[in-house]
Amino acid sequence: MTASGRAVAGVRTFAADVANGFLEVTHSSFALLGLAVAFAAITLTARPDLRQAGEEQLMGWLQSRQPVVVQLETEPPLGDRPLAINPKELPREQAAVAYWLSKKYRVAPEPVAALVNEAYEIGTRTKLDPTLILAIVAIESSFNPFAQSPVGAQGLMQVMTRVHTDKYEDVGGHLAAFNPLANLRVGVKVLQECIARAGSLEGGLRYYVGAANLPSDGGYAAKVLAEHFRLRQVAGGRAAAPNVPPATPVLSTKAPAEAADVSAPSAALPPTGEKVALLAGV
């Protein structure tokens, strides 16, 4: 046999020895693992106290790694939220907003106070200005929780219930559209989606009213931003003029293309037939 042949044979012998050794070690390891599992199963069966302690430790380990997720997704149950609050029990800023809205829209201060308080809590969770949420309610329904438009938009924020039925599942079903607090929560979810889709607040308002693909929104965004400006003044402790629009829209990324008559009622907007709920993709 030549030298190269002997070398090849040696390598093959070495590789075969390594492979056999690996198989023996692996076989022994699996055998030991099986024995350990069997021993652990017998021990846990004979000692239920050890099994219970292990289960408690495992559950504690799992729970310790997901409190942030639960905290972000959990909202206060609607059943625990009052529909009316004495405005005097609210923080000064919220009370001022509640009294101002009550006087302007001729609604009882107690239910308005509950809405203001809910808007502030939703605003904290969603990073939206609560006075913006309340401004949309003011323009959409004038704080009438039973309002309905000709195209089927319902409640405080005039959400198209038949399109956004899925959003009502967690707050009592589609009839919760007439629950003011439920409507407020669902309306804010729709608003968030509209703003995300448009990439700006003003663009989001155009989506919200169903005018994203129209030449004009009929002055809707300007009205909302003007009311938002007034509510910001009230929240800041300053007297707000009833119908004077801001020189520059608050939180808007660009000025309106043309000035709108903010004293005109929302019902005067030209019917688009789309409203919010016809944006099924939103």
Quick tags:
single chain, 282 residues, mainly alpha, 9 helices, disordered C terminus
Give an overview of the whole structure.
The protein is mostly helical and 282 residues long. The protein is 55% helix and 1% strand. It has a two-stranded antiparallel sheet with strand order 1-2. The longest helix is centred in the N-terminal third of the chain and has 44 residues, at 3-46. The model is unreliable at 63-73, 244-274 and 276-282 (pLDDT under 50).
Tally of helical runs: 9
Total beta strands: 2
**Sequence of strands across the biggest β-sheet:** 1-2
Largest sheet: 2 strands, antiparallel
Radius of gyration: 32 Å
- As a percent range, the share of strand residues is under 5%
Mean pLDDT: 76
Helix content: 40-55%
**What's the helix-strand series?**
HHHHHHEEHHH
Instruction: Pick out the low-confidence regions.
Output: 63-73, 244-274, 276-282
Quick overview of this protein structure:
The chain is mainly α. 55% of the residues lie in helices and 1% in strands.
Q: What's the arrangement of secondary structure elements?
A:
Blueprint: H1 3-46, H2 48-63, H3 67-73, H4 92-105, H5 109-126, H6 130-141, E1 153-154, E2 159-160, H7 180-198, H8 201-208, H9 220-235
Antiparallel strand pairs: 1-2
Helix pairs in contact: 1-2, 4-5, 5-6, 5-7, 6-9, 7-8, 8-9
